[in-house]
């Protein structure tokens, strides 16, 4: 870590699962990558004084605030990192950008297109003054996905024809899993669709370099009421079967067919009820010359089919994405040793800090995230409309 490098002083809002993942990334990035600015974990904000103090101690933050507004007022903070539910993103992000702070905001960008538009407007205005905003679609930074993007750019797949995207989890399968904020539309915006579908939509658009132009969708809620209390195991688990229940106000699963700007066909699915699938974010792309396939449950592997191979030797090959020639990998362990979930967050910090130091817009920008929000909105509108085709404006 360069001792005399200039600092990037970070103020983080929220400290639960995502806050912990981001804290780890801010701490780790400068220890493995040469960074033009060294992140400093300056302050973390949360409403509960005892809990935020405990989190600061555990996650490595130097000071605490109990109001995010105070974090934004502080002169010793350069960037606001938003790790709170979607209903808070708009207010925090716009206030931070207007105060001249860079912003990293968790996904999905917002709970509505109107909020996302306001945020993207604020980000465009701020960028004219060298203040930048980025949205945390971290899977772009999984080495195998970055390699897939490189293959598409190099033309190895040829013309893209099919895009198959899935994000499958199972932590809501038990009908007594407790009612958490992720099941409350006023906080989360939507269910499986925004929480995990947003990731695979962003991933597909980014890897192919083409946006979804229109779609037809279905959504469902399998379990409409859940216990209001109970012990969480991971994000779900089994709550009290007896006792009060409250309404689930979001989708449990969403699926849609789509057409991309480049003419490719898309088929997408997002669910938190796929028993046995733990974090299966999957992408398969078939082009005129080759194909790729990825599954996060085997995240250090990219499958690649090259139609130029000898006919007798043709087949999907498993590229083990653990070699120094692969994106991000050279800075980690000796060849062959593999990376995990947290590395995507670290790479996100590495790229963000590099771009901020260079004064260039990091990706995904709020405009990129607004495009994802439009797709989420179209899915809900189409499902409500009997699966009618909805073009993306
Ligand atoms: C829960 O479904 C969740 O934690 C998402 O909120 C994250 O964005 C995803 O990376 C893993 O699953």
From TrEMBL:
Residues 147-292 form the GFO/IDH/MocA-like oxidoreductase domain. This is Gfo/Idh/MocA family oxidoreductase. Residues 8-127 form the Gfo/Idh/MocA-like oxidoreductase N-terminal domain. GO terms for molecular function: nucleotide binding; oxidoreductase activity. It comes from Humibacter ginsenosidimutans. The lineage of its organism: Bacteria, Bacillati, Actinomycetota, Actinomycetes, Micrococcales. It comes from the Bacteria. Coiled coil: none annotated. Keywords: NAD, Oxidoreductase. SUPFAM superfamilies: Glyceraldehyde-3-phosphate dehydrogenase-like, C-terminal domain (SSF55347), NAD(P)-binding Rossmann-fold domains (SSF51735).
